[in-house]
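Service request form, structural biology core

Requester: graduate student, group of Dr. S.
Request type: structure prediction, single chain
Budget code: on file
Notes: please return the result as C-alpha cells.

Sequence provided:
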Amino acid sequence: MSWQEEIDDLNRRRRMAEAGGGEEGIARQRKQGKMLVRERIAAIADPGSFQEIMALSGHGTYQDGRLTHFTPKPYVSGTMRIEGRKVMVHAGDFTVRGGSAGGHRGGMGQEMSAAERAIEWRLPYVRLLDAAGGSVRTFEDYGRTYLPDGSQRTQYDVRLMNWVPTASAVLGSVAGVPAIEACMAHFSVMVKGISQIFPGGPPVVKAALGLDITKEELGGDHIHTRLSGCIDNVAETEQDAFDQIRRFLSYLPASVHEMPPRGPVTDDPERQEESLLTAMPKNKRATYDVRKVINAVVDKGSFFEIAPLYGRARITGLARIDGFPVGIEANNPRYNGGSTDVAAGSKAMRLMQLCDLFHLPFISLADEPGFMVGPEAERQGIERAGARMVATVCSTRMPWLTIVMGKLYGVAGQNHHRPSGMFRRYAWPSANWGSMHITGGVAAAYRREIAEAPDPEARKAEIEARLQALASPFLTAEATGQDIIDPRTTRQKMVEFVHDAQRILQSQVGVPGLPYLP
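Core staff response, request fulfilled:
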C-alpha cells in the first residue's frame, strides 16, 4: 500500500501555504516596490540553504473532509545559511492580512517558535519585519477581546539578545509588537522610502491626537536613524539591507558559547601609515577626519560602521585586526567637537555591551573634550546618561585598548579607561588631558584672582600659559609610567593586543557578563 495520496495532499498544502495572501495581496506588495517574503529569504540566504519550519501552519476550510481553502500564517520561519553558518530567520508576510497575527491560533502541542529554537540551538536570529502588528479584526476571530500578554512571547526576544546575535530589517510599515522587535536587536536596518516604524500608524495618531500625518513623516528613516536612534542603519534597497546584515553577522560568533570567527588575514600586521604622523593637527581649533585614522589602523576594508547618522559625536562599528573581529569607537571632532552627548554615549554603550557579550576586544580612539554642556544637554539628562556610562564601563569584562590621540578630559574622558580586567592604554605625543580644559577651567578656578587684577585678560592669559607648560604628556609619563608611542606604530600595538586578548576572551566564552539592553 502506497502513501502517495497523502504525499500529494502534503505537496498541495505546501503550494497553498506558499501562495501567501493570494493574488491581491501579492499585487499590493509589488505595487509598493517590495519583495515577497520568500524572495527576501532567498536574497539574504546562501543559495538553496533555506529550510522552512511550521510550513503547514495556518487556518484551513474544509468541505466533506477535504481542504478547500487555506490561509497561511502571516510569517515564514526556518533555518538558512549565511557564509556557510546556520542562522534562524523569521520573516513577516504582509500579503497575509498585513502581517497581523489575527486568525492564527496556537494551542496544546504547539511547536517551538523560531525565537525559542534560536536560543536552544544557539543560532543567530534574523528578523525580516513587514507586519502591521495587532488588529481589532482579531476580536472577531477570537470571539472576544483579550488581556495584553505579549510578553509571554516577547520574553524569548529578550532572552535572544543575551545569548545569540540578533538582527532586524524593517522592510515595510511596521507597527505594534513588530516595531518593538525592530529595536530588540544588536543591529537594525531600515530601507529608505519603503520602511517606517511606530507603535500606532496614522489612523491611530488621528484618533488619539487629531493629527493628520503620513507614515513617512511619522516614522521614516529620517526620524529613526538620525533623531530617535531606534534603528542603526539605513539601506538604499532591500538587497542592501540584507548585505548589511550578512556583513554584521560575519564579525560575531553563533552564540555566547563560541568565539568570534577569525576572518582571512589579508593585511600586513606590521603596516605603518605615514599619514598618522600628521593625522592630529597642531592647531587645536582645526578638525580632522577620524574615519581616515580608523581605516589606517584596522585591516583594510574591514570597518563596518554602525549608526553613522545618530549620536554623531562618536563613531562606532566593527572591524578586523589581523583577521580578528573587534569593536572600535572614536570621538568625532567634526560634530560638536567630539563632545559626548546623550545620543553619542548611548551608541558607545551599545557597542560596549555587544563586545562584552560576544567576546570581541574593544578599541577606543580617544579625543574626548568631555560631556556636552549647555541647556539642551541638561534637558536631555546628561548627568544620568553619564552615570549610566560609568556603570557600563565598569561592568564590562572584554579586553579593552585605548589610544589617546588628543584630548581626554573629565568624566567623559574617564569612560575611555577601565580600572579592572585586561586594559591597555597608549598615548600619542599630541595627547593632552586633565579634569577639564585649561582655557575654561582657568576662568572658574582663578575667578577672584583674575577679577582683582589690574588687567584681568592679561592675568588670565598669564595663568593659562603657566598651566599649559604643565600639560605636556611627557610630564605625565614621568610620573605615572604612561606609554607614549609613535602614531605610526599604532596598528602594530593593536595587533599585539588583539592576539594577547584571545586568551582572556576564551575564558569568558559561555558566561554572559553585562546584560544586553536595547
